Amino acid sequence: MISAGMIRVIVAAGKKYKKCCFPKEERRPDKDGVDEDPIVDDWGYELFGARFPEIAEKETRSITVMDGGRFGLPDGIYVFHEMFCREHGCDCRRVFFYVTSAPRHNVDAVVCYGWESADFYKKWYKDDDADMITEMKGPALNLGSPQSNHAPAILELVKNVLIKDKDYMERVKRHYNMFKADVDKRS
Ligand SMILES: [Zn+2]
Predict the structure, then answer these.
(1) How far from chain centre, in Å, is Cα 82?
(2) Crossing angle for the helix pair 118-125 and 130-137, nearest 10 degrees?
(3) What is the average pLDDT across 37-55?
(4) pLDDT exceeds cutoff 80 at 104
(5) CA distance 51 to 22
(6) What is the 74 CA–ligand 1 centroid distance (Å)?
(7) Strand, coil or helix: 138
(8) Confidence (pLDDT) at 105
(9) How many CB atoms lie within 10 A of CB 174?
């Protein structure tokens, strides 16, 4: 489990995260992934553990890498903190894995993943730009987020291990629904 201090750091870095909810806000990134609207008052994503710390402590997934050569990663425990969009009424169905590793505790990667079909995101973003939909659906390294040089190997870990675990993905969806219900309740 990460500390409250670390959460504050993540929140402070939050403006680097791309808004996911273009259709409602008419807010689109330009070709460099930079937000065209310079006034970004709210950055959109929040740790599941910020709202449900006890559940996050029990249910946040980690992967222990002991034969790092196999994944191209240093040995250690890689923790996949879930972040979701906190916009009221937004049903974007994506998770952001904020990946840290122990014993180093650096930000190793931020991986986005949408578990629905490509068609779902085409409709949601009202866009059939194949590259953009591929990036939205992921799994992909999130543009604009801090990424270490281990990030590409962590992305492979997400693709080959994490999201192939059906029970785990059901857990992520449950967390998403809890988080969204809490957002709607408080707004
Ligand atoms: Zn959203």
Answers:
(1) 6
(2) 110
(3) 75
(4) no
(5) 24
(6) 33
(7) coil
(8) 65
(9) 12
Strands annotated E in the chain: 45-47, 61-65, 76-85, 94-102, 107-114, 140-141
d(CA 44, ligand 1 centre) in Å: 7
Distance 140 CA to ligand 1 centre (A): 17
CB-neighbour burial class of residue 36 (10 A; exposed 0-12, middle 13-18, buried 19+): exposed
What is the number of domains present in the chain?
Answer: 1
Which helix H or strand E contains 8, and what residues bound it? helix 4-12
Q: How far is the CA of 21 from the centre of ligand 1 (A)?
A: 5
Structural domain of residue 136, as residue ranges? 4-186
For residue 90, how far is its CA from the centre of ligand 1 (angstroms)?
5
Alpha-carbon distance of 173 to 58, in angstroms, equals 16
Please give the single-letter amino acid code of residue 8: R
**What gap in Å lies between CA 59 and CA 161, rounded to an integer?**
17
Cβ–Cβ under 8 Å, residues 61 and 154:
no
